[in-house]
Amino acid sequence: MRLPWAPAANERDRREMLKRIGVNDAMELYNDVPPEIMLKEPPNVGFGRQLSEWELQRLVDTMLSKNKVFTDPPPFLGGGICFHIVPAVIDAILSRSEFYTAYTPYQPEINQGLLQAFFEYQSLMADLLEMDVVNVSMYDWSTAAAEAVLAAMRVTRKKRIVVAENIHPERVEVIETWLLGKEADIRVVEFDRETGKVDLDQLESTIDSDTAAVYVEIPNFFGVVDDGVEAIAEITHRRKALFIVGIDPLSLGIVRPPGSYKADIVVGDAQPLGLGLNYGGPYLGIF
Length: 287
Prior knowledge:
By secondary structure, this protein is of the alpha/beta class. The protein folds into 2 domains: 11-64, no CATH class; 90-286, Aspartate Aminotransferase, domain 2 (3-Layer(aba) Sandwich). It is built from 8 helices and 6 strands; from the N terminus they run αααααβαβαβαβββ. It has helices at residues 11-21, 53-64, 88-94, 112-129, 141-156, 169-178, 200-206, 229-238; strands at 160-164, 185-189, 211-218, 242-247, 265-269, 285-286. It has a 6-stranded mixed β-sheet with strand order 2-1-3-4-5-6, sandwiched between helices.
């Protein structure tokens, strides 16, 4: 029986679809999957027949029950991404149509709730950071840091970026990737192995008149709150460069906001404010 409304319902349609995308066999679509993890034969489920929805649900639940539930993880895993309590009401609110727009609310007349949430988020973050303007928002901390560096290069029309060595190494990798083709000169400043703080002497010798920005994190990757941050800001601004600071928003309950020590751009990740782990991101990049 031919079902013209059902794609790939017969062999002729399947051959035509494969031909159109330039492959001879559907298995070619899985060439990127390592062969050692591919099933060599169909899984032994269903006793040779298709499972009903209820049977499949029970099978999947049984398999998933073997996983460890990540409710009490070790606190030092994740590179800054940690388990936080997410109130149950959050998922309920996000399921409402007022908040469900996946991206930009192109029809503001039906997205007033989302726009109100954006405004309140920006207002609260501006107060928390002591900054005049807050974006809504970047993908995560790394992309926010990369965008901040690019913004500094555009504003100053300079090419050198100075990055502290004691920040998350993967953020350095993202910054380096985003600067490919920009003729940027990325310099890394070492930190004192005893204190974990930025080496101010090396910082001063690394910054020159072509430096667009200096990027540090408070607290840094090792959890150290660098009390030399005002000196870093002074050295940076003396060379007419922009001072970019990465922060953990939870730390601002006890640490001075970056606006108070003259940060020009602030970046970070709002995951600590109550987002799930989401397999490592993306989350909500502060900018």
